[in-house]
Structure to design on (203 residues):
């Protein structure tokens, strides 16, 4: 197996942190999305959406989307369980994983894409939409802070793939200056410090 990735991309980091938590090694192939290497017919044959990361199996099967890759690896290597250990945990992990995607990763990503000009050569930009997405991401930080006031991790005392997703989304926010503030988001800052200190966070 090998993973096609762009090191700086937050969704690629999600998979690397997941692998580190599992103690798994993987071959990585770098894809330069800045130069459009992911837009070639050869790469689109692996993923029609031309995104990273993509997991390529030994039989040639390609699995795109970070969560799909993580779920596949979870099936192969169930311990430590990162998607939940019982029905309640699995449901709550799924809930917070989706919130990490829809409330933070998406909004930060759209803010970056429509405000930075990084992909100006391949997409039409809507700066006001980007700014609105940035505002929504900042508002969600308060929601996170309130939730984490009574929970060390997103799902009680259980570190999960949802924490990985939220960490990678929050760290990606640095590129558009979306960061938690110690005075306004003390619980979020406490959580971020704790999960950032895990060895896997350096992946």
């Amino acid at each position: 197996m090998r993973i096609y990735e762009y090191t700086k991309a937050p969704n690629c980091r999600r998979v690397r942190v997941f692998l580190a938590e599992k103690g798994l090694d993987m071959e990585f192939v770098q894809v330069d999305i800045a130069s459009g290497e992911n837009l070639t017919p050869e790469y689109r044959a692996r993923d029609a959406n031309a995104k990273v990361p993509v997991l390529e199996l030994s039989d040639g099967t390609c699995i795109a989307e970070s969560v799909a890759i993580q779920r596949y690896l979870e099936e192969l290597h169930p311990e430590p369980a990162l998607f939940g250990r019982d029905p309640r945990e699995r449901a709550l992990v799924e809930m917070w994983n989706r919130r990490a995607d829809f409330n933070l990763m998406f909004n930060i990503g759209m803010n970056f894409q429509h405000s930075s000009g990084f992909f100006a050569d391949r997409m039409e930009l809507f700066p006001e939409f980007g700014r609105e997405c940035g505002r929504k991401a900042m508002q969600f930080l308060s929601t996170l802070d309130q939730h984490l006031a009574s929970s060390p991790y997103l799902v009680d005392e259980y570190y999960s793939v949802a924490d990985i997703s939220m960490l990678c989304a929050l760290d990606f926010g640095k590129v558009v200056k979306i960061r938690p503030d110690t005075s306004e988001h003390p619980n979020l800052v406490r959580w971020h410090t704790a999960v950032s200190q895990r060895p896997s966070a350096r992946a």
In short: The beta strands are 2-5, 27-30, 54-56, 62-64. Helices lie at 10-22, 41-44, 66-76, 87-116, 127-148, 161-172, 186-196.
